[in-house]
Amino acid sequence: MSQVEQLTDRGEQPDWHGMAPAAVLAAVGSSEAGLDDDEASRRLERYGENVLTRKGGPSAFRILVRQFANVLVCVLMVAAAVSVGVGEYLDAGAIMAIVILNAVFGFLQEYRAEQAVEALRKLASPTAIVLRSGQQRQVEASKVVPGDVLVLETGAKVSADARLLESVNLKADESLLTGESVPVSKRSEALAARLAMADRANMAYMGTNVSYGRGRAVVVNTGMATEMGEIAEQVQAPEVTRTTLEVKIARLAKWLTIGIVALGAVLFVVGVIAQRDPIEMFMMAVSLAVSAIPEGLPAVVTLSLALAVRRMAKRNAIVKRLAASETLGSTTVICSDKTGTMTANEMTVARIYADGRFLEVSGVGYQPEGEIGLDGEAVALEDWPVLERLAQVGVLCNDAELARTDEMWDIIGNPTEGALLPLARKIGLDERELREQMPRVHEVPFDSERKRMSTVHPTSDDGLLVAIKGAPEVLLQYCTRVLTNAGVRELEPERVEQTLSAATEMAADALRVLGLAYKLAASDTDLEDAEHIESGLILVGLVGMIDPARPEVRPAIELCQQGGVRVIMLTGDHKITAAAVGRQIGMLEEGDRVVTGEDVARMDEQELAREVERIAVYARLAPPHKVRILRALQARGEVVGMTGDGVNDAPALKRSDIGVGMALKGTDVTREVSDIVLADDNFSTIVAAVEEGRIVYDNIRKFTRFLLSANFDEFITISVAILLGWPLPLLPLQILWINIVTDGLPALALGVGPAEDGVMDRPPRDPRENMLADMLPFLVVAALVAAACALAAFRWELAATGDLVMARTLVLTQVVCFELFLVFNCQSDRASVWEVGFRNRALVGAVLISALMHLCLVYLPFTQGVFKLAPMELADWGRILALSLPALAISPRWLVARGSHHA
Predict the structure, then answer these.
(1) Is 657 left (phi over 0), alpha (psi -120 to 50) or beta?
(2) How far apart are CA 300 and CA 98, in angstroms?
(3) DSSP helix/strand/coil, 103
């Protein structure tokens, strides 16, 4: 049994990056020639396939059952059962129909989302090249085992965690795992122990890509034992975060249930004390409790959320979970990954230093569109011949290729080299034509010691062009002249100092700096003499490149700040780079701190909870650091939205209040654990989603306020009549009709109303706010005024005619009219109908339809008989309208609490 097998049995892992290659081979029981087939088969049986296993997601049945795991829905189902028990079958049928429709709608939405994100197994490459008994062999990646020796080449995806044995200019793109924005140079010698994952330069990790060079590495971990597997395990942990809306609806249902049961009990006790029949009072109390429950609330909430989901989809935000569409509206902090989210994850030349001047380059990413500018003005390229030579050297001394796929531009090869190709096109040079005209005949490759690369190309005058790029401080040692717009000049010491100073200035701005030079040589030059080829060079200039911020990010952050939403950057990139991007997009302000993952690791929980308010940028983070930061923010009462695209972001996305993944450049894992996926990977889309979230919550508040006020006025009306010893002013079937007419279309119309003005100018809501307490003054006043008007109409008619059927007809019609007027004062928390007007056309239409339905009920002979009604005269309508007009005076401006926003 190998040492690694013994350690595995004890649940331990060696510090692979701190061991020499020979020691690693000994520990895994392998050799430079790899394993033989028999040993590979034995280990495959022992360790299992090299795949990321996925715990079974929720079944269709479980998703369906989850739709009923809601306090208000449970209350409604109890209410339906009670209705059946007291013989109110129509009530019971209406309630259960709403519950079932609500469940079906939610099930379909969540089931489709669950089926759309089956992707963890796609993380590993389908095949790998390994050494078996010293011979290269291509095998399925799932068959790779610890001890296998991987052969790594440019373009390959690493299929398991491995310790490098050999590295020849090897660079790996680890951005999706560590957040590092540029490829990492790899080496094989042992490093210091206990380094952070991003600093283990002698390790290669599952799911990363070889962007340059070649190498060999011995596999030390496969499947779920890899770094990728550990993240996948965290992602699949059964930790579920309820959205703020789910919390609020549950709280509302709790208090409604308590309140309704308490009122029913009081009514029963008072009736018994007044010597009413106990059985009759019990049945009446139960009926009133059932009528007071807003059975339409779950359906309206679901419909409102579904419409918000559709609107968000049109704005490139794909919602996987209905309630998540509202959560963004209450988000107080957005923690965003830098690479690929705030930046394009595409190295871009942003600045050029040539002929003693700094030139700015516009454009983002690999899109070959933009221009060269000087002092804010575009330069005339014909006046800058040095730029053509700079582009020529950048294209020829380059192994990358510019490609277009699916309407997007991308790079095949090293991103740093690739950034020079869009630059060439901006300068007016087509790299394909140039490479055909001047093919490469020789090269001296880059390595970490030389820090430069040279290529040789034939020219049209039968000479040779030597194109060179490398570190500026190294390249300048081999340059004797410099190219200017006026021609080639001697490279004087003063110009050397200026160039080095320019390189330092660019590096201070977090730019990755390359020097470019060339040399014209005779056709008979000895190409094997590298020292001669690279001597007497002509300096062309410097290029500074960076993974740039998306242009739309800064205004999006400003809009977030305007709306009281704080934006924090979390990245695995270097501190200087992160700070530079933070300043560029307006995140770093006076007093804000920039810290690293090591700084976070040194803080205890209390210190971190204190410091998170002052830290704007976190750099060099590992996945556990992000989770700690998230929990520290949540401990302070923040509602945290977390964005990300890399596998390293997945654990934090899962544990956040709202996880936002990226569709275009995000990994399948992040898309799976996210609540919302941005179809365009655009940070500004988050702001649009925040706006939609605020709109949907506003609408939920509006129709909740209306539904409760409408239902409680009926409760008060009947309760007062019973206590005064009057006949019942409304029959159970008539109560059901009121709920259908007023709680139906008008409430739905409130749920699809337009946004109020300034929705992004106010701070986020306090997630701890009590929705019922906020609207209680409005509910009490509306219910009392409505009940008073209904009782007045009832008593008026009884006193005048003694006709109980007509009196109930007037009460029914008066309650319907009052509530149809009141609904217009539920359009806003901040303004009355006289200020808002009638801009919600859906609401106007719903009120007109409801009024027409009631007219039919009152005047059609068949419905008159079923509902025990009498036809009304014109004078009756005059009295009803007079008693309904007070509804237009119940203004939410002074009856709805609005001060509970997050400070």
Answers:
(1) alpha
(2) 10
(3) helix
Looking up residue 152, the CATH number of its domain turns out to be 2.70.150.10
Asked whether residue 647 carries a pLDDT value surpassing 70, the answer given is yes
Whether the Cβ atoms of residue 347 and residue 416 lie closer than 8 Å to each other? yes
Ramachandran angles phi, psi of 280, nearest 5° = -60, -40
pLDDT range class, residue 732, cuts 50, 70, 90: low
Residues 150 and 219: beta-carbon distance below 8 Å: yes
Mean pLDDT of the chain: 83
What is the SS3 assignment for 749?
Answer: helix
> What span, in angstroms and rounded, lies between the C-alpha atoms of 126 and 148?
16
Residues 281, 369, single domain; the answer is: no
- Considering the domain architecture, whether residues 807 and 752 belong to the same structural domain is answered as yes
Do 339 and 352 belong together in one domain? no
Name, in order, each residue with C-beta under 8 angstroms of 407's C-beta and a sequence gap of 6 or more: none
Got the DSSP string for 353-381? EETTEEEEE---TT-----EEETTEE--G
Percent helix / strand / coil, the chain, rounded to 5: 50, 20, 30
* Whole-angstrom distance, CA of residue 846 vs CA of residue 848: 5
Q: Are residues 338 and 353 in the same domain?
A: no
* Residue 568, both tokens: 């924090």
What amino acid positions are annotated as catalytic residues? Answer: 337
User: Is 647 within 8 Å of 231 (Cβ atoms)?
Assistant: yes
**HSE-up of residue 713 (Cα within 13 Å, Cβ side):** 32
Q: Give the C-alpha separation, 663 to 679, whole Å.
A: 5
Question: Half-sphere exposure of 867 toward its Cβ, with a 13 Å CA cutoff?
Answer: 27
Contact 533, 521 (CB under 8 A): yes
Say which range, 541-550, 623-632, 698-707, has the weakest mean pLDDT: 698-707
**How many other β-carbons are positioned within 10 Å of the β-carbon of residue 487?**
9
Measured CA to CA, the distance from residue 637 to residue 609 in angstroms comes to 11
281 neighbors 265 (Cβ within 8 angstroms): no
Cβ 399 vs Cβ 413: under 8 Å: yes
99 vs 5: CA distance, rounded Å:
56
- The residue out of 527, 546, 565 marking a domain boundary is 546
What pLDDT, on a 0 to 100 scale, did the predictor assign at position 34? Answer: 93
0.70 exceeded by pTM: no
Is-contact 169 186, C-beta < 8 A?
Answer: no
Question: Cα(873)–Cα(303) distance, rounded to whole angstroms?
Answer: 39
Residues 6+ apart with CB under 8 A from 447: 168, 169
* Cα–Cα distances in angstroms (integers) from residue 760 to residues 563, 642, 687, 831, in the given order: 5, 19, 9, 17
Phi then psi for residue 518, to 5 deg, are -150, 175
**Residues 216 and 267 occupy one common structural domain:** no
Q: Tell me how long the chain is.
A: 903
On whether both 789 and 816 belong to a single domain, the answer is yes
The predicted structure's pLDDT at residue 900: 41
Q: Which position has the higher pLDDT, 654 or 818?
A: 818
Which amino acid does the sequence have at 794?
A: F
